[in-house]
Structure formats: C-alpha cells, structure tokens
Write a structure and sequence with these properties.
The protein has one domain: Sandwich (Jelly Rolls). The chain contains five helices and eleven strands; from the N terminus they run ααββαβαββββββββα. GO terms for molecular function: metal ion binding; oxidoreductase activity. Keywords: Iron, Metal-binding, Oxidoreductase.
Length: 260
C-alpha cells in the first residue's frame, strides 16, 4: 500500500526532528495503569527531537501515543495517500502517529471509538498480537472499559494463573518498514516495538449507523464515566473491576464461550 508514498523514503527520525523537533510531547511507559488517573495519563514530557534521539540510541519503555504531528506540520499529508480505493469514511483530520523505543509495549486494548485502522510502520520492527472482539471476556476485559487486565504477559501468558486464556485464538504479526496492517473495528491489539521506530494509523468510520452510534456512546459515556469513577473511587474501584474481569473470564471459560 505504501510503495508510492513519499513518506516511505522521506520519513526518518532525522527528518522528523528537522520539522518538529522543538515540540514538547507526552510520554507513556509500560507501567500498569494508575487507578487514580485517567487512562492514557502521561508518565513524562520531553522535547520531541530529544525523544527521537533517545529511541535510536538505546532501549527505553517510553513511547508516544496518538500524536497528531500533521496538526503542527500540515504538509506531511502530501507524503501519504489515503487508501480510498479500499474503503471510505476516513477521518482525515486525525492521522495519528505512535513512537516507541525498543521493548516498549502498548497494553492490550481495542480503540474506544471503534474505527477501522490502517496501521503502517516505519524505521524498524514491531510485534503485534490481535484478537477478535468476540474473545473480550476471555481476555479478562476490564468492565466498562476497552482494555484488558494488565497482569498477564500477552506474548507468553501463564495459563495456570489465567486459565481463561487457554484456547483463545488470535493473530500474530511482525511489521517491518513500510508494512501496513489492517485492523477492523473492535479488533483487540497488543504491540511491542522491537526497534526504536514509529507508526502511522489512518482511521476510518464504519459505514453502519449502529456502529457509529456505539462509537459516539463509547466516547461520550463509557470513556468519560470510566475516568470519573477511577479518579473518584481510585484503588477500590480498580480492584473491584479487576476481580469482576476475572470472574467474567472464568464464567465465559466454563460456558465454552464464545461459541465457534
């Protein structure tokens, strides 16, 4: 898909430093979510150029999440081609970029606004594990959230501690420079940067009015309510939800769900 993109050759960390190196960016790490903070709260902030130097110099858990560099450098849009021959409904104002150091991990989740995703990687390798949404209970999905219990290693789970994971079927992908992965709406994904590198996600709305309504509900109610309850109730709320996630996973396992 990217063979004709100028970005394929043009987008290097040195080029990105040149056009946006002075921007300050929020950084995230591999730590378990703090129950007293909203989801995706930053662990630190850094000058973008310094961060790019860091991920090329050494392994780090620090990553940049959902960064719209296009907002600051609109000319970047000329370096890519939206695949409108494959799908309509692209959210052209929200091309999101993601950066990570070697060994940084994006926790298992699905996107709350339920877009279709075209995820293109640049400058290194990325390990991705995907699951259909039908497995969400067996993945220990946190109630009223779009992410899973963070106490297990997605790439190497302990089936004795988390028995509901046994038998769950997924997909494993390794992306290299210029590769694009399509993820349909609601697809669970876990990602690990094998090299200091970065990705671009192009997002497209599903054509279904029902799916669009569900997306708006998730953004307006589920996401907001989750953050409010977390900040108000803190650790007790987090512990309650984690226990409920385990209970639901074990119940789904006992019932043989999902049905094949």
């Amino acid at each position: 898909m990217t063979k004709s993109w100028p970005a394929r050759e043009k987008w290097t960390t040195e080029y990105l430093k040149e056009i946006g190196g002075d921007l300050e960016v929020p950084l995230y790490d591999n730590a378990k979510v703090d129950p007293s903070k909203p989801i995706n709260s930053a662990a630190a902030h850094m000058r973008f150029g310094d961060y790019l130097d860091l991920i090329k110099r050494e392994p780090t858990e620090l990553r940049i999440f959902f960064f719209n560099l296009f907002k600051h450098v609109p000319s970047l849009i000329k370096d890519i081609v939206l695949p409108k021959d494959l799908m309509g409904g692209f959210i052209e104002s929200m091309p999101a970029m993601f950066f990570g150091g070697s060994n940084s991990v994006t926790f298992l989740h699905y996107d709350i606004d339920l877009p279709h995703l075209f995820h293109t990687h640049f400058g290194g390798r990325k390990h991705i594990i995907l699951f259909d949404n039908k497995w969400k209970e067996r993945l220990y999905c946190i109630p009223n959230a779009t992410y899973a219990l963070e106490d297990y290693d997605v790439a190497n789970p302990d089936f004795d501690k988390f028995p509901a994971l046994r038998g769950v079927e997924g997909y494993e992908v390794f992306l290299e420079h210029g590769d694009t992965l399509f993820m349909p709406t609601g697809m669970w994904h876990w990602m690990k940067y094998l090299d200091g590198s970065f990705s671009l996600s192009l997002r497209a709305w599903d054509a279904s009015p029902i799916r669009k309504a569900q997306s708006l509900f998730n953004l307006a109610i589920k996401g907001g309510l989750d953050s409010v309850l977390k900040m108000a109730l803190k650790a007790p709320y987090a512990e309650f939800r984690e226990k409920l996630a385990v209970k639901r996973a074990e119940k789904a396992l006992a019932k043989g769900l999902p049905r094949k």
